[in-house]
Design goal:
Its main location: membrane. Keywords: Cell membrane, Membrane, Transmembrane, Transmembrane helix. One of its GO terms (cellular component) is plasma membrane. By secondary structure, the protein is mainly alpha-helical. It contains 14 helices and no strands. The protein is globular, with a radius of gyration of 22 Å. The mean pLDDT is about 85.
């Protein structure tokens, strides 16, 4: 029961953040208009991109280090945080793209988001997902309330609102975790960058595959279609991400348990896949067609379910490869998916527009699934042959 509660709490916590952002965007655009809210999105895109760079693959790298040496967990955490802080001056690049008064708040947002995101490994290791859910909910209330409080849109004011929200998240999480009370020793080391680099490249390859469609839609289609596609794909990606949220509580265990135990985890995830995607897509259809009134046919939502479904069948395969220190294999597969996706989008977007982009993403996801399963089958055959040869 406690394990189910942990899964449920992490799923709610993981799903809450994109859902909160989704609601904020919907009402922000509705109240202030696309152009004004787009100016905020433009700044936040840079903030999140720089935060991604500053993360430098720390989550998966540190979780593996924690599993190897739990007694030196805080040494690893603070050494990694101290070393990655050397990258913070990259945030000053924002002054090249925005006015000084906007860039100042954007840089502060990068620093605060960097600090907050760094705590994710401790949250996952201790499985204290309720603390993070409380922090995310507090930040959501601040931002969402501000959307209704202010009568006119001002970019600087909303950057200040986001700053207050992230400070609130940091305070709430810090009070809940009490991590500063632990004894630790921190060292500044280039080794942190070397160890995190494979995970960073891995994340970058995934980032390219998941974001390229947005940029192509922005280039080829009208602004209104871009907004519609963002709403659609964000909803489907939230549904897809449920697979990761369900498995995150067991990340530290996957590095320790046998293949048979991992297979049992896979079977449970496979069983949950179809009910979750079916219910999720139906909920998305109600929200986007009955409330937002996008006016899309059922074909778009069938494709959305097919986009989300494969992730439930290959998420644990990815973790197995990480466990076996085969991050480079994941990178190659992700780059393969990136090139397949971008080629199909260019082929279909002019004729089928948004539907064509969804078809491209769907085909790419299923090809990724086939590659991961073919790789696993090959590995099993190789192991069997080696076992037979030893006998």
């Amino acid at each position: 029961m406690s394990r189910l509660l942990t899964i449920g709490m992490n799923t709610i916590r993981g799903f809450a953040n994109p859902a909160f952002n989704f609601l904020i965007v919907i009402f922000g655009v509705k109240i202030f208009g696309k152009n004004d809210w787009a100016s905020l999105i433009n700044v936040m895109i840079w903030v999140f991109f720089l935060t991604f760079i500053l993360g430098w693959g720390n989550r998966d790298h540190l979780l593996r280090e924690y599993s190897k040496a739990p007694g030196k967990m805080y040494d690893a955490f603070f050494s990694n945080l101290l070393s990655r802080s050397l990258l913070l001056p990259l945030a000053l690049l924002l002054f090249l793209f925005f006015p000084v008064h906007i860039a100042l708040w954007a840089v502060l947002l990068v620093v605060l988001t960097f600090a907050y995101a760094s705590l994710s490994t401790l949250i996952i290791y201790y499985q204290n997902f309720s603390a993070q859910l409380l922090a995310e909910a507090a930040a959501f209330i601040i931002i969402f309330g501000s959307v209704f409080y202010f009568e006119t849109f001002d970019l600087e004011i909303f950057l200040i609102v986001y700053t207050i929200a992230i400070v609130t998240k940091l305070v709430v999480l810090t009070v809940q975790m009490n991590f500063w009370k632990e004894q630790f020793s921190a060292t500044l080391s280039i080794q942190e960058f070397k160890s995190g680099f494979p995970f960073f490249v891995l994340g970058l390859s995934g980032w390219l595959m998941s974001k390229v469609d947005i940029y192509i839609v922005d280039f080829y289609l009208h602004q209104s279609q871009l907004a519609e596609y963002q709403l659609l794909i964000t909803a489907f990606l939230m549904l897809q991400a449920l697979a990761s949220y369900i498995t995150i509580p067991f990340t530290k265990h996957i590095y320790r348990v046998s293949d048979k135990v991992v297979q049992k985890m896979k079977n449970k995830l496979y069983t949950a896949a179809l009910p979750l995607t079916s219910f999720g897509v139906f909920s998305i259809w109600i929200i986007l067609e009955k409330f937002v009134k996008l006016g899309f046919t059922y074909h778009y939502y069938v494709l959305g379910s097919l986009i989300a479904l494969p992730c439930y069948f290959y998420t644990l395969n990815i973790m197995e490869l990480i466990k076996a220190h085969k991050e480079s294999t994941i990178i190659y597969i992700s780059l393969f998916g990136f090139f397949i996706n971008i080629s199909l989008i260019f082929l279909l977007i002019e004729t089928y527009e948004i539907l064509g982009v969804l078809i491209s993403v769907c085909i790419t996801q299923w090809m990724m699934l086939l590659v991961y399963k073919a790789l696993k089958t090959t590995a099993l055959k190789t192991t069997a042959l080696k076992t037979t040869a030893l006998k």
